[in-house]
Input
Amino acid sequence: MKSQQELQISSKKTDRFSSAGFILAAIGSSVGLGNMWKFPYITGQYGGAAFFLLFIVCLLAIGLPVLLAELAIGRYGRGSASTSFVKAGGGKVWARFGLLQVLAPLMILSFYVIVSGWTLNYAVLAFTGKLFKNQDFSGQFTGFTGGYMNVVWQIIAVVFTGWVVAKGVSKGIERFNKIAIPGLVVLLVILMIRSVTLPGAGAGVSFFLNPDFSKLTPESALVALGHAFFSLSLGMGILITYGAYVDKRQSLGTATLAIGAGDLIYALIAGLIIFPTTFSFGIDQAQGPSLVFVALPAAFSAMPFGTIFGGLFFVLLAIAALTSAVSLLEVPVSFAMERWKWTRTKSVVVISLLVLIIGVPSAVSFGMVPGLTDLGGKSFFDWMDFIASNILLPLGGLTTTIFAGYYWKHAAEAAGLKSGWFKVWLFMLRYVAPVLVVLVLLHTSGIIKF
Output
């Protein structure tokens, strides 16, 4: 008889997503916090709807081809983000390149769960009314992030994420996303309706939907491409890992379009929440995290039923954060189960502890440990974000495009595309995507500037 450990390890081969569950989980990985605080800033800076149209072009021309390649590699290889390249027919050297797509989500998760903890804390504060009792929202945020409760909520976010992943693919990740994503859609619609009906909201809607092509520059094209890449969770190993759990009967082309549509609709509705609200209350969109945790609470406190809408907003953010966190954790957990033959439970516990250990310096770099707040002009938190987002992710994406475009003999079979579409897909992977990914890497790392 097989031991319990052997049974749990072998279950990875049979624990699969359903068709709908896979698409919801993949959309959950792309529905994160970036579209709520980064997307409004870059959209406003680069021409409103003009930038949004450019973002759509990047999503269709580059994002979706790379997304399809990652899913195809994962399903064909049926391994972790590292070994799927080898199992799909590559040499052992590809496992080393694939390892980048295990390290990147591990590093991202170490600071992402910190922000996830912020959203959970603010959801509780908003619904209890404590958030709005003190109108010094900047002081509240600074005091929270610089104190020990920041670490406490980081731990809560890690524990919840680990609990979902420990339950497995179908009973954990899929079941969570089947509840979370529909709930997120409902919250998005409610908040969008509230935002566009605020006094003066029309100016924000007009700014977002009326293009200003004069602000488009070569830099804006790379920014749009970088955001499309990040928002689809490319180069993180997530889609390769999820692809390993997809049934062979699932059309990857259809799934790719559905995931891309989900990401695009989320970005659109996020814009229709943020821009009307910020214009209505005279808020500058270019504030990053402080937009969400300082400026918007002030706006909610000034609107009728603001406590309710503020609470719903932070619940929305918490759902978006946790669906992405679950996807990020599954990547190194899948690798640990395969590499060291650990059970899923052991893998989740060990990786979660590692995430906390790596993440604590980031959590205390907001003032608790002054030496970590300014390391060459960036905090420890910012350096982790910079290395993962601007270096590891583009390198991971480049690995996928080169492997699928030039090396992989089974690309046509794995992608399941008809001859005409396969030629278009292969052309994008060979001649367009690698060049643009390299340009994004050089731009985000500061090597080239416009």
